[in-house]
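Can you give me the bound-state structure? Components:
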Amino acid sequence: MNQPAATAKSRVICTVDFEREGKQADVLRVPHSRNDSGWGVVQIPITVIRNGDGPTVLLNGGVHGDEYESQIAIAELARTLQPKDVRGRLIVVPALHFPAAMNGSRLSPIDGKDLNRCFPGRAEGTFADVLAHYVSAVLLPMCDVNIDLHSGGRGMDFVPSTTSHVLDDAARFERTNALGLAFGAPYHVVIKEVDAGYTLMTCCEQRGVVAISSELGGGNRVNPGGMVATRQGIARALAHLGVVPARTAPAPSPTRLMTVPDYDCYAFAPRGGLYEPYHGLGDAVAKGDAAGAIHFVDDPHREPIVIRYGASGELWCVRAQGHVQAGDPVAVIVAPYR
Amino acid sequence: MNQPAATAKSRVICTVDFEREGKQADVLRVPHSRNDSGWGVVQIPITVIRNGDGPTVLLNGGVHGDEYESQIAIAELARTLQPKDVRGRLIVVPALHFPAAMNGSRLSPIDGKDLNRCFPGRAEGTFADVLAHYVSAVLLPMCDVNIDLHSGGRGMDFVPSTTSHVLDDAARFERTNALGLAFGAPYHVVIKEVDAGYTLMTCCEQRGVVAISSELGGGNRVNPGGMVATRQGIARALAHLGVVPARTAPAPSPTRLMTVPDYDCYAFAPRGGLYEPYHGLGDAVAKGDAAGAIHFVDDPHREPIVIRYGASGELWCVRAQGHVQAGDPVAVIVAPYR
Amino acid sequence: MNQPAATAKSRVICTVDFEREGKQADVLRVPHSRNDSGWGVVQIPITVIRNGDGPTVLLNGGVHGDEYESQIAIAELARTLQPKDVRGRLIVVPALHFPAAMNGSRLSPIDGKDLNRCFPGRAEGTFADVLAHYVSAVLLPMCDVNIDLHSGGRGMDFVPSTTSHVLDDAARFERTNALGLAFGAPYHVVIKEVDAGYTLMTCCEQRGVVAISSELGGGNRVNPGGMVATRQGIARALAHLGVVPARTAPAPSPTRLMTVPDYDCYAFAPRGGLYEPYHGLGDAVAKGDAAGAIHFVDDPHREPIVIRYGASGELWCVRAQGHVQAGDPVAVIVAPYR
Amino acid sequence: MNQPAATAKSRVICTVDFEREGKQADVLRVPHSRNDSGWGVVQIPITVIRNGDGPTVLLNGGVHGDEYESQIAIAELARTLQPKDVRGRLIVVPALHFPAAMNGSRLSPIDGKDLNRCFPGRAEGTFADVLAHYVSAVLLPMCDVNIDLHSGGRGMDFVPSTTSHVLDDAARFERTNALGLAFGAPYHVVIKEVDAGYTLMTCCEQRGVVAISSELGGGNRVNPGGMVATRQGIARALAHLGVVPARTAPAPSPTRLMTVPDYDCYAFAPRGGLYEPYHGLGDAVAKGDAAGAIHFVDDPHREPIVIRYGASGELWCVRAQGHVQAGDPVAVIVAPYR
Amino acid sequence: MNQPAATAKSRVICTVDFEREGKQADVLRVPHSRNDSGWGVVQIPITVIRNGDGPTVLLNGGVHGDEYESQIAIAELARTLQPKDVRGRLIVVPALHFPAAMNGSRLSPIDGKDLNRCFPGRAEGTFADVLAHYVSAVLLPMCDVNIDLHSGGRGMDFVPSTTSHVLDDAARFERTNALGLAFGAPYHVVIKEVDAGYTLMTCCEQRGVVAISSELGGGNRVNPGGMVATRQGIARALAHLGVVPARTAPAPSPTRLMTVPDYDCYAFAPRGGLYEPYHGLGDAVAKGDAAGAIHFVDDPHREPIVIRYGASGELWCVRAQGHVQAGDPVAVIVAPYR
Amino acid sequence: MNQPAATAKSRVICTVDFEREGKQADVLRVPHSRNDSGWGVVQIPITVIRNGDGPTVLLNGGVHGDEYESQIAIAELARTLQPKDVRGRLIVVPALHFPAAMNGSRLSPIDGKDLNRCFPGRAEGTFADVLAHYVSAVLLPMCDVNIDLHSGGRGMDFVPSTTSHVLDDAARFERTNALGLAFGAPYHVVIKEVDAGYTLMTCCEQRGVVAISSELGGGNRVNPGGMVATRQGIARALAHLGVVPARTAPAPSPTRLMTVPDYDCYAFAPRGGLYEPYHGLGDAVAKGDAAGAIHFVDDPHREPIVIRYGASGELWCVRAQGHVQAGDPVAVIVAPYR
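Here's the bound-state model for the whole set.
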């Protein structure tokens, strides 16, 4: 794996006492010199609730700013959950990459970076690097579990799903999948990620933290169905971990264990244009079927390019914006895991 | 009405001979000095098909660049329709506000204008003004009918619908509604538009051109259901007008005649934040029901603001992006017309 | 004068009933299509308080977004003033050019315009034109008096002052000066403005509305002394007009009637560079004195350019930012009127 | 013609006394509110030299900011020419669209406009409109002749040429051509311009001012050959007009009278890409010859598009930047006039 | 401490011979590829004056581009000081972060970085990293003392002060304080800086260079009082070090030794809005006093938030811009040191 | 040398089988998260042709996006060359820094970096770093030779030339020069580069790869003469290496071996302004001759600054844009090597 250890002193200031019992609503103060405020910081809301013994769980949304369901549900939890309903310690950050969340964009308006390509971070880097460094150097060493909730963002729409990595350590793989199945989204998708060297999930793996993530909507909107899956899934997962009482969790919901078998499951746009998808989320599709077409409105007399699936399975996600650029994924297929 | 007559000479060059029989695929050349091409133009594809006697219909998409269904379907028609299948004259422009369409945005990347607030245009104005002026001064005087197809764009998702204005002239109102009903979308919505003084539809009215528009999807994506409604609706409407043979049209589809009774049908966001809608398109809702909530992720401990409907009816459209700003409409209600 | 009459129908929506007794807190809804909200508007807070007979006064701040004292004081008044304390009608708009005020800039982030160069406005223009048009076509016809409060903005720092135009109509000139003297800032400066053809004050003059303005601070900050002058001045001016009871006004404060005798009173930077002023606000200075120097930090071995005053008098305002560009005013001199 | 009369009062301040004998080096002060200087202006250098009786000539460069030869040569003239060497009045503006000239761009960095599409201007418009209005309303009424020198700018390279319009008035056409021939560039090209309704030259025609322009280089660079043609041409033209003594002019240089016979002389890029020209300036080319090719480096396996000339003649100008967009002219052919 | 050693070869070119006697006015040439000048550099003026034996002092301003007093005074010194008046070696850089200084901004317009968060720099980094690396790897190893003069920049206004770090090494702490006291500003403030791992001062400490800095004005303007303090302070400090003759220094001025006792001395804005300060620089304030208020002009009916001081002492600096963002410091309190 | 070894795992995906015989046209997929496509990549066309034994040559253009001749010629080769005409392996990348090439700019529109200052790259860096890392870690270890073709870009015009470094290893220096001479441009220039620590050529040297580069035109245009030199030079060089048959190469062309003897051969602009060059490419010039002048159009009465050559020789390149900034090179002189 690519990630080196993060050792330098963090530049982030947080006055939370992580050992204190009770509920603390505070902020992370991440230094950010602006032209009109040289000593300015970005304040990222963090709520810590501790009550007796139990696991420490970092529950966060907003690693990408345009993924909304979890930001809303986690902020709600931070507002409403009381210490008496907790066992152990819950570290709650509704919108981790705060400047991106305020901007409604995946990438930071400050340094243009994708926080989920910056782990384990660098104390001497730009904003996203400094923030990633704080998480890996200060927060994760306290944690047993990380639930880092994502959605499809602007570019994709997903069947509501949880995700985790295929792990070599069978016991941890099982513990992780059990957490995903407890969450209760329609799919729990286990993946061998391409280009995952710098993600929060990889960072967790290297530090022995059990980690699941999710895809719970997309298309740059708040999805009502995704909101149900997110609110209920968080409650079920925390109950499964014993951090909140089991009685507070909604009834279990059946979840299928899926995977993305190989690279052929990704369909890419070979050219830029306007993409018309032919299928809906969850549809069963077969290798060689037409997935959609790229239209050239600037040249109406040019034939559209039809894109075909490279594998059979179920349609996990589809392109959620009209325009595509060459190389953009437009569909990903999943199939049952073993 | 606000619109003055457009009389100055157009700056747009088009070598189409609008009187010629047959099919001509050409471009409108709209002057656009760039820093690296002082004599540059923007080329907007236009296809004209003429065959014998019959009405002249201007069929266009892309007045807003982020409304895709009609751009695709109209480009398809321009590519495939042959003179032998036409009676009269069809002027086809798949992406009228071409720079916006290439940019995938409602507004022009050139002058920041909404083309549908620029009619009847000005020959000495900026790009959008010059283009609007060409349409009103050169194209519309040749036309009997304008079918100007829209979708919800980035900000809204709609029940697929056609639209037209409530007109004082009863005969023209009836002819217009008949065209909308022939199109066959689920709703044909007749409206007394707020702030309509500078739209293409108002420009058509003042020149005696029968005009319908539409809302056929939204959310900055290509909607598969919207594509069906668009492709079939165009074919039915052209057949209804006698411009293409009736046998080529799909079977009729039932359409309900609806309206937006008054200003209370619009629900607005009183503050900016993250909007969670509570209902889906077409849902029956009642005055006073909660329409959705505005969440404040930057301040998780602040209560969300619940927005309520100001009228009863069916949900015509909902906000299709997560973030809202103060004053953004988040829902519009329709009710049966008379 | 240059300003034509504004006659077209306004595009701004306001649900205030200006004839109703009592206090209404509402917004002006100015149409502003955004890429992510095609039917979006900008909501500008407006508060109208009416109680029986008396003059109608439009009291507004924020024609320039970076002039803060009046925005704060007028918002405070809108929040706290009750109908029982009013005689006549008070139309209160704390931040008229609202997008500029939210941006903390003189010019609009929407169309780059200075609202005070857009009067009387145009219904078919860009945002600032549409807003100016509403003021001149809808609000001013209801008004007897306009108090439009300004500060020095980013570029200038001022001796706290009220201002008005030198008027041909002696009676109105006297009424206007009496209002300025009642306000009680250190100076009331009467000017024959250069380039005033498109200001709100000129627009008032042409419509017979008594109008004063002000300069109450500057340098892009909130000035504590300016706050005192602003809060007290508003109270005194409204009491002078009989709109609020005289007993609520602070004690009168002596005000000197000044003017800018001619164009030589303006000192300009002949070249761009870093400006060092040699005097403070209100200092007595003489024609030919060194006003300051332009330094060339990019070329330390080049001699600074010393700028000299072109007239004798008191220093009304000085440049409040380090960098200047060629043509920027760096100082303006006032002298007693007559 | 499209241009209405410009009648409103100019907003530009200039302290030159145009009636005074001698040399005055001054500036035009064009109002330009900036966020950091609300009363800021743009200072445009202007030099006026008057000595006794004789014609008034407005000699200017920099209508487009990226056309350099004339800016340099005219600034040189402003610096060195003395009243004793003048007969009549010379109004010299080296860089008329000053913000564009400082930016090295055709269009203004202030309002994005091409000054040569803004005549006769509007006092209530944006910066370029206000400037054009000053020229048409204040300067041109004083002038007998306008020499407005251009080059190819960023986009084009030209055979050094003067240009003028084909005029209906035979006497003025002859006087104009005589001035062009006196200038002594290789070509004097008389044109019926496409899209010329808002240029300075058209504005001169409508006011009875004899007007020539030029194309003296291009490619966003200072061309040594173009500098010779410019310096000598100005001297010959002023001598021809009697404004400077004939003895100061260089020896005459042979000039051919050319024209652009019709629209087929323009070769356009049908698609965007990388343009490779096949001929050099002044080459004799024939209709149907390959003019160049558009290459698609993003798709190396796609065949280039070869563009062919639509007319025979000499190559007046060629595209001077690698990238082209659809609709950009890449070559223009001239042929002898009559 | 966080800063590693800088060892790679510098990419900066400087033709100064630092060993040569006399005065050399030269530039640092820092590579900066631009799109229009691939081999372009940024030239940063540097003046080196050497005369016989004595300490080497690096005197610089402009680490932040919007801090002007020192840029002006140091450029003046570079222009006027002669070798005969020097003992030892003076390395004078009026505007170290030159692109920021030309831009009048704290951060670089090139890479958006704050130079004072980039030390000790990296030869393979972006512009600010490369520049910091040159200072730490080439200049500092020659130096005994660094006087790096700052002001409050855009965001803050300060009581004119010098500053230095609280050092573990008592002898060096004393030498440093003696230099600060010699400078003669009203305060010499010794601080344990938050987030100081990457500053020039920390870099000096690690290399054994005696280092003081300052805060000599602010608010993005040139402060006349700050200019006096700066000009006199430099002269006194250089005389104290023996680099210039004592007779050339102004009379000593009393300086109080102050400190920022702890983190409670900082008052922060909890929300964004318009900040009204209640006190002036140097005022004595008490813990719990209202420091100022945040006003919400977008919602005039919302109560302002009053911010209170967290410690008693004197007001060292206040917010110098109207708008604040959440987390911005608005006031800092100092108290006597020991 | 500065460059460390690149060892981390590349993030670039390429499905080419470099060991396979025949021709493969594929793309490099470089990860590039966009706001509207989180899993987006940039697709860079690569063609690999392998046929039996022989050297491996990486032939690429477009390290700078505004250098066009080689992009066109190399794309042509990728399109037309067949395996039967190859001996060994040819890795062909017409536009290596693809985002810059599509943008027509030297620097990347993604991260603003010059790819040729990023070698050997970093897998965890920004886009250009990741791309450079792939070249150095994956491609170069397969290569014997790199031919990396450049032109003058926007800023410079060059006598068509090949270039290489002066090498300590005499045998490799000779092999490199032989390759340059075989290419057959007018000059082969051997240089000791300033600021070459992070270039592709230095990276090749450190890995034992024979490397030549070139300067084959400039001025942001496609130069017809440069196209001839490029097409023929590539054919001759590949034939010289035995990768294509000798019979396919054009006749040899005489090449002179030149060098840039020292730093005095560079003439720089001491101030920004408008640069007028006095000589043409290849002209013989002498130390002390005037090279050109910087004109100040903003101040026509200021004397131009004349720049003089610091060495005698032939003019290798001249500034190809009108505006210069302080520190820009405007001319470089070459002289025969030994």
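A couple of observations. Chain B has a mean pLDDT of 95. The radius of gyration of chain B is 20 Å.
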